[in-house]
């Protein structure tokens, strides 16, 4: 069990590193698949103005992230989580 937990933890650690590298590349417009690049940057230039829809979507996603984070910080969630996930891998 300890070896499996260690391998799983290392896998999660490596995956997190890859996600961070891809996130930085995404922000600098590298490593984007062509369909996503065409959708995000149809004319390869900055938009003239920020749309209200984009602002509402961004704030909505931020609020969902905050709710999820706040919910997982509660002791009641942690008690339930520890019943489902073994303690050595709960942080991974």
Describe this structure in words.
The protein is mostly helical. Helix content is 70%, strand content 0%. It contains four helices and no strands. It is flat and about 55 Å long. The mean pLDDT is 85.
Write the layout of secondary structure elements.
Layout: H1 2-27, H2 34-40, H3 52-72, H4 75-84
Short synopsis of the structure:
By secondary structure, the chain is mostly helical. Helices cover 70% and strands 0% of the residues.
List keywords for this structure.
92 residues; mainly alpha; 0% strand
Structural class, from helix and strand content?
mainly alpha
**Number of beta-strand segments:** 0
* Pattern of helices and strands: HHHH
C-alpha Rg, in Å? 19 Å
Question: What is the count of helical runs?
Answer: 4
- The N- to C-terminal Cα distance equals 15 Å
Strand content: under 5%
Low-confidence runs (pLDDT<50, min 5 residues)? Answer: none
Biggest β-sheet strands, sense, barrel: none
Shape: flat
Helix content: 55-70%
What number is the mean pLDDT? 85
